[in-house]
Q: What sequence folds into this?
């Protein structure tokens, strides 16, 4: 429950929660163990309108406010963070099409993506890193109106299941975005990484081997796109961190109330109870930062610094909380059988994905007037 959401939004949260409880939760431990991509759950979330929840109705979505996207991330991450990240990567692809696509491109790609019929991948990261894009090599060259892609993208979520690759990078030192459909000649996928956590989400390399992209599949990066909109993606990762923390915390709360030592529940030991109280306080702060930032965007008074703060704070605390939850479980917490250990493994991505926490703190420091020159600040500094 968040005091930043309306009654109607909280009601929608209840329905999302029901989907997660009845359909996602029963499969979560198995997916973590087998690493199988949860395509059926992705499709089901699409059918229920959760994937296109913020896509405008004109393009097949439910046209809800951005807070609802955060609610989807939060609720799904409580039980299966890997599915939340799969959906998040897909949402990033959809947002690029919404932001940069022509009306024809939106009509062609968004309705099927919004309902989960197609899976998208956002291909941005290159071996030069993900933040210092001025160091990216040209991802291809122009041949008349066509763009011929010759590059490798790394760490791409949904790499091996994507129906449409949204490929973003530099061409002749200018940012370009291209759409490459599955089966296009020259499109190849490499290995799927064996990861610490997020088992079930596929992350891999994608090679574009002289892939010819025609004009109708090239989108223009519009200069002056609102930084408020560009930085919304960070709230999704903040919401995932919030959901992971809540998932681990709720299970731990139950555990300390039922596990007894010296004839008393663990929760009656003051030290244990204080850990519970501190975690609850941190979770409330994460929730407030994330949903306050989203609501400000919705009300047209976005402060992008808050988006960076929500992402940085939530992800760092998520790691501490999931660690503490294992601690309070003792030995069984260290095994995979309780389902608590996986939260800590999954938590780690939140300080790395969608830019490392260090970069977010750099952004905040730059907005605080610090003369940092080692991080590119790609947004307008206006509070919007
Ligand atoms: C599971 C997973 C899924 C991903 N999915 C996608 C995806 O779908 N699409 C996509 O394009 N990318 C994806 N990524 C890539 C991700 O966005 C990058 O890994 C991340 O942004 C960090 O970039 P890097 O790996 O290049 O780290 P590097 O740039 O090599 O940085 C390594 C570390 O150095 C520090 N550092 C780097 N630069 C600075 C600086 N300027 N100032 C201070 N400290 C600094 C940070 O601590 C950072 O964590 C994914 C990554 C993972 C792990």
A:
């Amino acid at each position: 429950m968040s005091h930043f959401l309306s009654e109607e939004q909280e009601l929608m949260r209840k329905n999302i929660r029901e989907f997660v409880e009845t359909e996602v939760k029963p499969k979560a431990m198995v997916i973590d163990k087998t690493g199988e991509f949860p395509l059926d759950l992705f499709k089901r979330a699409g059918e229920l309108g959760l994937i296109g929840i913020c896509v405008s109705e004109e393009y097949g979505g439910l046209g809800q406010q951005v807070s609802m996207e955060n609610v989807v991330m939060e609720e799904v991450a409580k039980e299966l963070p890997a599915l939340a990240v799969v959906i998040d990567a897909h949402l990033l692809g959809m947002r690029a099409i919404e932001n940069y696509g022509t009306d024809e491109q939106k009509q062609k790609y968004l309705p099927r993506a919004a309902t989960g019929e197609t899976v998208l991948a956002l291909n941005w990261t290159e071996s030069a890193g993900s933040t210092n894009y001025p160091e990216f090599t040209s991802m291809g060259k122009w041949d008349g109106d066509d763009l011929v892609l010759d590059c490798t993208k790394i760490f791409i979520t949904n790499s091996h299941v994507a129906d449409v690759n949204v490929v973003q990078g530099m061409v002749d030192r200018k940012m370009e975005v291209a759409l490459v459909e599955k089966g296009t000649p020259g499109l190849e996928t490499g290995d799927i990484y064996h990861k610490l956590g997020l088992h079930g989400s596929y992350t891999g390399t994608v090679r574009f081997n002289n892939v010819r992209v025609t004009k109708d599949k090239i989108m223009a990066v519009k200069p002056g796109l609102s930084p408020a909109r560009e930085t919304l993606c960070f709230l999704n990762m903040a919401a995932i961190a919030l959901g992971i923390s809540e998932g681990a915390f709720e299970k731990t709360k139950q555990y300390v109330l039922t596990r007894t030592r010296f004839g008393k529940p663990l929760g009656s030991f003051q030290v244990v109870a204080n850990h519970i109280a501190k975690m609850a306080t941190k979770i409330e702060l994460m929730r407030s930062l994330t949903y306050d930032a989203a609501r400000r965007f919705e009300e047209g008074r976005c402060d992008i610094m808050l988006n960076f703060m929500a992402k940085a704070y939530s992800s760092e605390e998520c790691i501490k909380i999931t660690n503490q939850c294992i601690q309070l479980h003792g030995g069984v917490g260290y095994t995979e059988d309780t389902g608590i250990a996986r939260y800590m493994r999954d938590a780690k991505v939140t300080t790395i994905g969608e830019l490392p926490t260090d970069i977010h703190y750099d952004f905040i420091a730059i907005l605080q007037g610090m003369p940092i020159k080692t991080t590119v600040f790609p947004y307008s500094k206006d509070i919007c």
The domain at 7-114 is CATH 1.10.540.10 (Butyryl-Coa Dehydrogenase, subunit A; domain 1).
